[in-house]
Amino acid sequence: xxxxxxxxxxxxxxxxxxxxxxxxxxxxxxxxxxxxxxxxxxxxxxxxxxxxxxxxxxxxxxxxxxxxxxxxxxxxxxxxxxxxxxxxxxxxxxxxxxxxxxxxxxxxxxxxxxxxxxxxxxxxxxxxxxxxxxxxxxxxxxxxxxxxxxxxxxxxxxxxxxxxxxxxxxxxxxxxxxxxxxxxxxxxxxxxxxxxxxxxxxxxxxxxxxxxxxxxxxxxxxxxxxxxxxxxxxxxxxxxxxxxxxxxxxxxxxxxxxxxxxxx
Amino acid sequence: xxxxxxxxxxxxxxxxxxxxxxxxxxxxxxxxxxxxxxxxxxxxxxxxxxxxxxxxxxxxxxxxxxxxxxxxxxxxxxxxxxxxxxxxxxxxxxxxxxxxxxxxxxxxxxxxxxxxxxxxxxxxxxxxxxxxxxxxxxxxxxxxxxxxxxxxxxxxxxxxxxxxxxxxxxxxxxxxxxxxxxxxxxxxxxxxxxxxxxxxxxxxxxxxxxxxxxxxxxxxxxxxxxxxxxxxxxxxxxxxxxxxxxxxxxxxxxxxxxxxxxxxxxxxxxxxxxxxxxxxxxxxxxxxxxxxxxxxxxxxxxxxxxxxxxxxxxxxxxxxxxxxxxxxxxxxxxxxxxxxxxxxxxxxxxxxxxxxxxxxxxxxxxxxxxxxxxxxxxxxxxxxxxxxxxxxxxxxxxxxxxxxxxxxxxxxxxxxxxxxxxxxxxxxxxxxxxxxxxxxxxxxxxxxxxxxx
Lengths: 264, 453
Ligand code: SF4
Ligand code: SF4
What we know:
heterodimer; A: alpha/beta; Rossmann fold; 2 domains; four-stranded parallel β-sheet; B: mainly alpha; Fumarate Reductase Cytochrome B subunit; Fumarate Reductase Iron-sulfur Protein, Chain B, domain 2; 20 helices; binds iron/sulfur cluster
């Protein structure tokens, strides 16, 4: 099935504003692994029949990593540009698959004139499920293999914005056994990517943070690590690979697990 | 008549000097910049009652929470006794409240006694835990030297205080039987009721009276000593936890503070119609971020002083857990060290601390012309601030709502914006965002994935 992914520019020509704008983000747009999550999420939107659009080439980095690194100038430039685009299109509601984009759009753009209803895709998916619009078939998200899933809380969704239950509720609808790690929810351990660490070498130390976290995830015995952030996705996948467990333990975003469970 | 006079003098000196020291602390905290505190008194009061008074966040670890709770509640109750000591001290009375309060007095004293014994047990366990067990968070490099001693000193003071209380009450219990006229009935006390006769029974009345006075004075002096010790101790949290939890930020933990000065500049840069503001241009380049106490918010400095040095933040810091140099506790401790240093230098009035270009014209040393050629970066290395993942685990873990992430980010801002330095690894990312609107330099269209799908 081919996907329908409307661009905001085209909708604007027809004078239309979609129900929700899907903010794809840099990773979702360019990172090969994260692109799969972007596509999976679009599939769900199509299957459910959500009226959405993406900004396409009108979208630019939110500026989050620059701001966290300390570069407020670059951040403010990106923010001004994005706010102008979003306001120009009269966007009211935004869904983001990246917790960092979500946080900046939701909490930091309002002070800069960008006020929208912003929702992270894990909450969006939970709402679709709750309202009965998104039905999960009772099949294993791992195909013919039984799935046991452990969920890794991303810092910017968990502690940063207090969302702990929505992603877990989504996972609970899947035919899978859920295994919690030791450090979860407000006590969850970072994957190591935040604060622009993704873009630099580690400081001297005796272990990589993603190794520490992946080991904890694998120690649950789960064969699937569920994430809801493209950077966690990279970090946890790297950690699993470093332990040479990539054939036994898979790292998936919530959206991918739904698509797989529904055999879409 | 000698006792009330001596008592009065000690009060004046003891409370006076403490008051003076606390006014210095206030001055040091206010070296930090003004921060607009969002008005939400209801929410703030609730946070203070739950987190500081109710110790809500301590209960993530039950055992230390309960033990700490004993010491804390015992401390609170002992204050009632302190009021009586002060009244007795000034009036040369003895247990003035006993006759006035009757049964209630017995209840209060019993609470104090039971809590004191529980606090004593907790104190001994804490001493053993801190000195005999190798608990990682108590043995990090920043805890060496004074912080370690400080932690022990207060525990010894606590033991001394409980001893004083039990001596005072124990001898009193015996004396009540001998000389009821001078020693009013306190009712039967839970601990001293049997411990008093056991230890002090059979002693001469004069010895007992002497011991009773010794206990009474010791109690009073330990409290005065404690009060004057607070300003140089981590135990300042017993007071500062209250303003800290009251004023702590209420915004989501992931939200970073805006920099309106840069926002304004960028907006006028991007707006072709913007008028050139002459006044703005003539000003010297402002300092962005923070390199010293004066660049931080007063709330950050308050955090430095309120910090209990418990290390709960460092214990959950992913950077620290994986052997990096960053320790959020150390950041808070360094802020206090530096604030103290600036405070002491300001007090010296020494003109060598006036910034060189202002030395001629300035009349006196003030916080505005202060420059000793040092900064927070002398205490906190770049390596430390670069290791932070902004995961907010430290903010979440802090039992009194201190935010160590905030100053770390302000230091980063200073490094990047004012010093134009920072990890070279970040430069390609900055350039890619600035030039291509994405964190990586990419030649593909941003929606190429959609074409491919
Ligand atoms: S926010 Fe930074 S300092 Fe605080 S726990 Fe996370 S990595 Fe450590
Ligand atoms: S900042 Fe908070 S958690 Fe960290 S040592 Fe100080 S009081 Fe403890």
